[in-house]
Design goal:
Length: 465
């Protein structure tokens, strides 16, 4: 492995900080034991084997940190913001630990022991985060990228202008070809008339992104193969943008790419695992949130009167284009929309009630959709279900829009996490690009990651409309 080469698919900064914080959490149990007892024999007699307890503490607190968005690569958090999220994560994790100790007494450490261990871990993680943010250079963790092509398609890399969007790579330059339709700025020098392998080794490139406007008869197969055999990764522009942005650019996609690319595959086993996951987690969620459901229903009644409806049913498009009635808490005034006059909800919509503004901000209006999940109309994770009229309009004007219906719609999803609520066709295009990323890469681990990050969205009110 060449010096500086990263592990594909794993963001090195996130991996390092996660390992460091897991070590702090795991060690907190053992450090506390040494502080409170004379030696292993003493703590064995009092609290028992520490290993399973340290694993439980570490797992729960790491999941809490994930749910606060502290391991999102493109999120630029300053130390103060990170510290606030660590505080909330520890508060949530402590609550879960208390419930775990109640349900599994064999894992209990004792109130004093747990308090000292969590305080040690809390300050240890804050110190580690502070040191990491102050001393680690982002360039250490960026792929050294050489772009083959300098036309319009290559220009899509230059569209990534925010620092947070460019943390994963460093453009070394681009190599123009005779068939480039135009010369586009990709934030690096142009290298004309150079041998690709020689240039890549001179620049110490780690990857070459093929971004040609026209590949027919224009792809230097031998040169690219020579680079790959020397340990330099060769990837397609779409794969590069998918990796860096978490979405699939529909303006660059061809039908052939969709057919032959990895992903976009749903097996019977995947559907069975997804259904089992949805049922078990939905029942657990319902058992936890039913008091919140009653409280929201009461608030709606208090604002609009005892005769007002609590729930709102609306026709939506689901799996394979089949329609179903989605169930939500009513957040708008009754009769806010005339029959046959479907209107997209907008920011600061005057049809929204006072209670509705609050429950929309914290996604509480979506909670009754747990019943849709139990009924099988929806999954916990998937694209947002849209109304038939809007789906018909968008399917005509946006390519590949129908492909989002190859999976069940979800209460939460990748697009809901990554893109704020929108009410225009351009917003629909942006959300579709995230939905296609989910359809391509769907799996249990991605679903779990989305659910954990949804906690962050709910707590911080991100993307609320």
């Amino acid at each position: 492995m060449r010096p500086g080469t990263k592990i594909r698919g794993i963001r090195t900064p996130l991996l390092l900080i996660a390992i460091g914080e897991a070590m702090v959490l795991c060690s907190s149990v053992y450090v506390t034991a040494y502080l409170l007892y004379d030696g292993p024999a003493a703590w064995q007699a009092d609290v028992g084997d520490l290993f399973p307890k340290s694993v439980a503490v570490t797992a729960i607190m790491i999941l809490s940190l994930i749910s606060m968005g502290l391991y999102q690569f493109h999120q630029r958090l300053y130390f103060k913001e990170a510290a606030i999220r660590v505080v909330v994560a520890f508060a949530a994790g402590s609550t879960v630990l208390a419930a775990l100790f109640y349900l599994a007494p064999s894992l209990e450490l004792g109130r004093r022991f747990t308090t000292i261990a969590l305080l040690y871990a809390f300050f240890g993680i804050l110190v580690l985060r502070f040191w990491f943010l102050r001393t680690v250079d982002d360039n250490i963790f960026s792929y050294r990228t050489l772009v083959y092509g300098a036309g319009e398609r290559a220009g899509s890399i230059g569209d990534l202008r925010r620092k947070a969007d460019r943390r994963g790579f460093k453009i070394l330059g681009s190599v123009p070809t005779p068939r480039d339709t135009s010369r586009t700025e990709v934030n690096g020098p142009l290298f004309e008339g150079r041998e690709l392998l020689e240039l890549a080794e001179e620049l110490d490139a780690e990857e070459i992104v093929v971004a040609l406007d026209d590949r027919r008869g224009n792809l230097p197969i031998r040169d690219l193969l020579a680079c790959k055999l020397r340990g330099i990764e060769v990837i397609d522009l779409l794969e590069f943008l998918e990796r860096e942005t978490g979405k699939i650019r529909v303006d660059l996609v061809s039908p052939g790419w969709l057919i032959f690319s990895s992903g976009f595959r749903v097996t019977k086993l995947r559907r069975a695992v997804e259904r089992g996951f949805d049922l078990s987690l939905s029942l657990l969620c319902f058992a936890i949130v039913w008091p919140i459901l009653l409280l929201v229903a009461l608030c709606i009644k208090l604002e609009d009167g005892p005769g007002a409806s609590v729930f709102y049913r609306q026709r939506r498009v689901g799996l394979h284009g089949d329609c179903f009635d989605v169930l939500k808490f009513r957040s708008m005034h009754e009769n806010a929309e005339a029959p046959g006059q479907e209107v997209w909800a907008s920011q600061d919509d005057d049809r929204v009630t006072r209670v509705g503004k609050f429950i929309r901000k914290y996604r509480l209006d979506e909670l009754p959709q747990i019943l849709n999940v139990l009924r099988g109309d929806m999954s916990l994770v998937g694209p947002r279900p849209e109304r038939p009229k809007f789906v018909a309009q968008l399917s005509e004007s946006i390519p590949y829009y129908a492909e989002r219906h190859t999976v069940k719609p979800g209460i939460t999803g990748w697009a809901q996490l990554k893109y704020a609520y929108g009410s225009t066709e351009q917003d629909a295009v942006e959300k579709l690009q995230y939905d296609l990323f989910y359809v391509k890469n769907q799996g249990l681990m991605l679903d779990v990651a989305i659910l954990l990050q949804t906690v962050e969205v709910v707590l911080w009110g991100k993307g609320a409309r």
